[in-house]
Amino acid sequence: MATWMFYILGAITVVATLLAITQRNPVHAVIYLVNSFFALALLFFLLGAPLVAAWEVIIYAGAIMVLFLFIIMMLEIAPGVEADRYGPNWLQWLPILLLAAALGICTLLLTGLDPVGSNGVPHWYASPRDFGYALFKEYALAIEVVSFQLLFAAVGAFYVGRPERKSKSPAGGDR
Amino acid sequence: MTLLLALIPILPLFGGLVNACFGSRLPRPLSALIACGAVLGSFLATLGCWPGAAGEGLKTTLFTWLQSGSFSAEVGLLFDPLAAIMALMVTGVASLIHLYAAGYMEDDSDQARFFALLNLFVFAMLTIVLADNLLLMFLGWEGVGFCSYGLIGFWYRKTENAVAGRKAFIVTRIGDLFFTVGLLWLFARFGTIGIEAINSRAAELDPTTLTLISLLLLGGACGKSAQLPLMSWLPDAMAGPTPVSALIHAATMVTAGVYLLCRMFPLVSLSPLAMGVIACVGVLTAFYAATCALAQREIKRVLAYSTMSQVGYMFLAVGLDSVSAAMFHLLTHAFFKALLFMGAGCLIQLAGHENDIFQMGGMRRRSQTVFWLFLAGLLCLAGAPLTGGFFSKDLILATAFAKGDPFHLGIYGLGVLTAGITSLYSFRLAYLLFAGDFRGEELPHELPKLMIWPLPLLALLGLSGGLLNLPHLFGGRSWLSGWLERENDLLQIPLQSEYLLLGVAAAVFLLGWLVAHFRYRRFAERETEVCKQFFLTGWQCDAFFDRLLIRPFRKLCYFCWQGGDLGLIDGLVEGFARACLQWGHAIRFLADGRISRYLQGFAWGLLLIVGWFLLQAVR
Amino acid sequence: MIVPLEHVLILSTILFLLGLVCVLVRRNLIMILIGIEIMLNAVGLLLVGASAFWQQIDGQVMVIFLMAMTSAEVSISLAMVVYLNRRKGTVDVRAFDEMRG
Q: Do the chains contact at B614 and A110, CB–CB below 8 Å?
């Protein structure tokens, strides 16, 4: 049962992602991506990571993608005349696709050659309680570092996005 | 005694340094006084040391100069009979010339520089004379070269003076190179550079090496003494002030080559071939320079060529195995040639800074004193009987004659011919200068007293110089030969031959006088003949060297500059730079400022890495 | 036992390559950022799969850090997009080629 679920969810993820990257309209792309992330969250759950699955939904599908939507709407680059300018161009896609295909084939072959790979992933479950212990005991310092990083990112984003004064040069941030 | 000996070179050094450092701030008379006093003090010190010179001589080591492994060079002084007589001559003549220079340079604004260089020159010359090892001698050797350079180009604002100084420096440098090689070779063979040590062990060398080293030393001596083929700098050196010509280019420095050969005589004399070459160089230079002197128009150039010619006689004497004859001629020549140069300086002053003897004439009426003094010098130069020059030159020629074999008889013949020419050009100079009326327009300049009164002393020394080594024939006892412990230099020929030789010498002198008398008694401007032009330009030697050496050298330099430096080296460097630039231009499209291109590069790299792992896994 | 580990790897690879293609091909800055998100998620899937395979919790912890890092990166990048759009009035990467050699 879980095996079938894995393949179905994997297929949904791949198809949704494929649709997302080929959209002309960024809003559509974001919606497809949210779709893909939901499927991915379920995959995480299947692989025994319920907490990660929840965060995938909350942070990725919820926060980050909504942020994307906000920005897209704010900049008014949604559909219409401009959309065509950013649309796919097959001549441009071809070499990259070939490159990606070559990379994929190499990786697949490499994966297939590894004897460990054919072993199954066991049924296993990391409870939120275990997770919390590991996070705040073993990785306490890392958590602090990451929280600082988030703080810096917030300050940085605030600085970059500040309203421009008229007397400033266009480069802006050299004060 | 040792202290006194050390004072001999130190006093002029001190005087030179004082004048070099503070001379321009001292009052003028004081600057001259320091210079003269230093040299005079040196002369007195030499006199004080004199008693110690006999026999083995005085020796002292001041300090060790260089020390490296088995090699060590000391600043050591050696005051043996040869050095003593040379030092006495150098300091004595230098003292008189310094006094003269004090008068001569009265109005020059660079007096301090002049006296500094002059004193340094005396110091360097005394270093040559007193050095007990070859390296120290070489130090003095280079020192006199440098001072000579600085003094020839003393009035450096005129380009030809600076060029003359440079020419002298470069040509003597060629000779110095030979000397250096000889010096190093000697050190390599003996492991020492002490002059006495080398001389006493000279017989250990095999004949070929010995000859080659002797010839190298001869090369060095030729450069300094303006002998063939390195002679072309001396006439041009007359661009310097007259006291310089008198001191450096007549009395002392140009005889340094002779002194070197006398110093190393025990070594040089072991090689018959080298001795023959020295004699040939000497007599050929004597002849060459005498012919050149015949046609010169500038008074100092005549004297320069005559100097070259007389130094040639000294070389001849060395080549004839007779150190005492060489030293004898060196001494008398120093006296009368210094006298002649200083007299020439007076005459030039009297004629209103006129150098050209064709523009002079009737100088006798301008100063009777100078006339008589100058004539005394000319008589010595021409070899008038019973003057110093007569005895010393005659001793050399007689020594050549006494050898008896055809080679030496040929040399004797050429020497006698040269003596005749010497007499001829001496009297040509005398008649052109003093006979008739003054041909120029310049008014006489005043002559400082200081320029006159060193001259009588020198005239006396020159005229009576024969007493130094008066042969037995005239009742003398050949004092100089005895002092130098060279008794076997005394002539061993029959009395009749000796009279004959004296007669020949006197006859040649008279013949030269007579020819000059009839030819130059009345001045007439003659048109320039080819032969005269040839002699005037010194046998076209400058042109010859220009063709032979300077032009090919320039071409080579030009080739190296254009072909080697600009073409090859710059071409390589710039070509490399240009290749880098082109390569950069060629690949600059890669950096087109589009991030996706850069990321694509990452992806291709990733493909490479994954492909590499795949290959590893398959294997 | 759900699936062999290599199937997780294959899925992750495919997702990663899709993200890569998106980054390399699209010219819209927003789409490039989306491509980066896809690639990061592919890595997250790999980490969770590995965590399950070895039954170690560290892989999942790494995913948490990954998400934190991603949120920081997205906030900065989107601020930059706003800034760049304000400067040039477009989000086409071809407009930002001042570093061209």
A: yes
Cβ pair C32:B588 closer than 8 A: no
Q: Would you list the domain boundaries of chain A?
A: 2-113, 127-162
pLDDT band at B497 (very low <50, low <70, confident <90, very high): confident
Structural domains in chain C, sorted by start: 5-90 (1.10.287.3510)
Please give the share of chain C, as a percent, with pLDDT higher than 90: 47
Q: Which helix (H) or strand (E) holds A106?
A: helix A90-113
Q: How confident is the model at residue B504 (pLDDT cuts 50, 70, 90)?
A: confident
Angle of helix B256-263 relative to helix B111-130, nearest 10 degrees, comes to 20
DSSP annotation string for B187-237: HHHHS--BHHHHHHTGGGS-HHHHHHHHHHHHHHHHHHHT-TTS-THHHHG
In this prediction, residue A172 has a pLDDT band, given cuts at 50, 70 and 90, of very low
Bridge-based pairing of strands B58-68 and B71-79 is antiparallel
Distance from CA of B606 to the nearest CA of A (A): 8
**Are B69 and B152 in the same domain?**
no
**Residue A113: closest C-alpha in chain B:** B617
Look up the domain containing B26 and give its range.
Answer: 1-132
Measure the N-to-C terminal CA separation of chain B; round to a whole number of Å: 96
CA distance A165 to chain C (A): 12
Question: Comparing B365 with B373, which gets the higher pLDDT?
Answer: B373
Are B474 and B463 a contacting pair, CB within 8 Å? no
Number of domains in chain B: 3
**Would you say domain A2-113 falls under CATH 3.50.30.30?**
no
* pLDDT over 90, % of chain B: 3
Indicate the angle between helix axes B454-463 and B323-350, nearest 10 degrees. 140
pLDDT band at B61 (very low <50, low <70, confident <90, very high): confident
pLDDT at position B300 over 60: yes
Residue B28 sits in the same domain as residue B166: no
- Do B438 and B557 lie in a common domain? no
Same domain, B124 and B222: no
Say if residues B234 and B226 touch (Cβ distance below 8 Å).
Answer: yes
ipTM for the complex shown:
0.89
Please answer whether residues B247 and B97 qualify as being in contact, where contact means their C-beta atoms are separated by less than 8 angstroms. yes
B177 and B116 co-located in one domain:
no
**Cβ distance of A160 and C79 shorter than 8 Å:** yes
At residue B538, the 3 state secondary structure works out as coil
**For residue A82, pLDDT beyond 70:** no
Best of B585, B596, B599 to substitute, by most chain C Cβ atoms within 10 angstroms, is B596
**Is the model's pLDDT at A80 over the cut of 50?**
no
pLDDT digits (tens, 9 = 90+) for B65-112: 888 777 777 888 888 888 888 888 889 888 888 888 888 887 777 888
Together in a domain, B440 and B489? yes
Residues B310 and B379 grouped into a single domain: yes
C24–B600 C-beta distance less than 8 A? yes
On whether both B394 and B531 belong to a single domain, the answer is yes
